[in-house]
Design goal:
Elements: H1 9-18, H2 20-33, H3 42-54, H4 59-76, H5 81-95, E1 115-120, H6 127-140, E2 145-149, H7 155-168, E3 172-173, H8 181-195, E4 199-203, H9 211-228, E5 235-241, H10 246-258, E6 263-267, H11 277-285, E7 289-293, E8 301-303, H12 306-314
Parallel strand pairs: 1-4, 1-5, 2-3, 2-4, 5-6, 6-7
Antiparallel strand pairs: 7-8
Helix pairs in contact: 2-3, 3-4, 4-5, 4-11, 5-12, 6-7, 8-9, 10-11
C-alpha cells in the first residue's frame, strides 16, 4: 500500500466536498460580480480583490494575484469572464509551493532511519489529532512508528496522545505532565534507534508563557534529538486550523519566528469558507503545505496536491 496513496474517486470527492464552502464563497461571489459583464474591467478587479481578501487569501497575496491579472489584461488588451477563470486558476496554482512528498513516499529517504518529524502548533488546532492520523496512515503503509509525548506543559496533551497511540496501534514514549520535553525526545529517539523504528513523531508544546520560553524549549528539544540522531528533526511540521482564517496566518508567522518550519498541515478545511488561507500562507511563508484535513476520518488527512486543490476550488464553478 502506497503511503497515503494518490487521490482515488472517494478521496477526490472528499476533497471537493471539503472545499465546497470555500469554493462557493469565492467563486459564487465572482460569478455574481460578472453577471451582465462582457469584459473584465477595473470594477470587476476591485470586486475580485474584495472577494479574495474576504476569503482569507491574505492582503499581500491578493494584491499579487490582482497585479498579475492586470499585467496580463494590459498585454492582451481584452479579457472576458472565461479567460479570467483560466488565469485565476493558473496564478493561484503558481503561488502554491510544490509538495515534494507527492512522489508517493512522503519524502522519506531510504537511507534515513529513523525519520524524525517534530510537530508544532498552538493548542486547539488539531495538532494531536494530526499526529494520530499520520501515525495510523504510516502504519497502514507498513512503517514502524513511534510517538513521543514531549508536550508536557498540559496534562490533556499527553492523555490525548496516549489515546491516539491506542487508536493508531503504535507505541508511545511519555513521562506524563511536567516532565522535561527534551528528556522525552531523548528517550523516544534512543528507543527508535534501538528498535529500528522508521518514523518518529514528536509532539511539542503549543504555547508557553512567552515567545522566548517557547523558542528556548524547541531549540533544546532539537539539540537533544540531533545528539541521538544526527540531523534530527528532519522535518518540522506546523499544524494550523484552516477555519480560523487570518488567525492561522498570524500563528504561522509567530512560529516561523521561533523555529524553522519546513512543512505545513492545515486542518479543518471541511465546513469552512476560509480555505483561501491555504494560498496566502503557502505564498507568504514560502513553506509548502504537505497535508490538509478535510474530515474527521483517519483517511481524511490527505497529502496536499496543489493541482488537485486548485481543481477542487474551481470545480462546479463555471464563471
Amino acid at each position: 500500500m502506497a503511503i497515503f496513496g494518490f487521490l482515488n474517486k472517494d478521496k477526490k470527492k472528499k476533497l471537493d466536498d471539503g472545499l465546497s464552502k470555500t469554493r462557493d464563497n469565492i467563486f459564487g461571489q465572482i460569478k455574481r460580480s460578472l453577471l451582465g459583464k462582457k469584459q473584465v474591467d477595473a470594477q470587476v478587479l476591485d470586486q475580485l480583490e474584495e472577494i479574495l481578501i474576504g476569503a482569507d487569501v491574505g492582503v499581500q497575496t491578493t494584491l499579487n494575484i490582482i497585479q498579475r491579472i492586470e499585467e496580463r489584461a494590459a498585454k492582451d488588451k481584452f479579457m472576458n469572464a472565461s479567460e479570467l477563470d483560466a488565469i485565476l486558476k493558473e496564478e493561484i496554482s503558481s503561488l502554491l509551493r510544490e509538495n515534494k512528498a507527492l512522489d508517493g513516499h512522503l519524502g522519506l529517504p531510504q537511507d534515513q532511519k529513523p525519520y524524525v518529524i517534530m510537530v508544532v502548533g498552538v493548542n486547539g488546532v488539531g495538532k494531536t489529532t494530526t499526529i494520530g492520523k499520520l501515525a495510523w496512515q504510516f502504519k497502514q503503509a507498513g512503517k514502524e512508528v513511534l510517538l513521543g509525548a514531549a508536550d508536557t506543559f498540559r496534562a490533556a496533551a499527553v492523555d490525548q496522545l496516549r489515546i491516539w497511540s491506542q487508536r493508531a496501534g503504535v507505541p508511545i514514549v511519555d513521562k506524563g505532565m511536567g516532565a522535561d520535553p527534551a528528556s522525552v525526545a531523548f528517550d523516544t529517539l534512543n528507543s527508535a534507534v534501538a528498535k529500528g523504528t522508521e518514523v518518529v513523531l514528536i509532539d511539542t508544546a503549543g504555547r508557553l508563557h512567552n515567545k522566548v520560553n517557547l523558542m528556548n524549549e524547541l531549540a533544546k528539544v532539537k539539540k537533544v534529538m540531533d545528539r541521538v540522531v544526527p540531523g534530527a528533526p528532519h522535518e518540522v511540521l506546523l499544524v494550523l486550523d484552516g477555519s480560523t482564517g487570518q488567525n492561522a496566518f498570524e500563528q504561522a508567522k509567530q512560529f516561523a519566528q521561533v523555529t524553522q518550519i519546513t512543512a505545513l498541515a492545515i486542518t479543518k478545511l471541511d465546513g469552512t469558507a476560509r480555505g483561501g488561507v491555504v494560498i496566502g500562507i503557502s505564498d507568504q511563508l514560502e513553506v509548502p503545505v504537505k497535508y490538509i484535513g478535510v474530515g474527521e476520518g483517519m483517511e481524511d488527512l490527505q497529502l496536499f496536491d496543489r493541482d488537485q486543490f486548485v481543481e477542487s476550488l474551481f470545480n462546479a464553478s463555471h464563471l
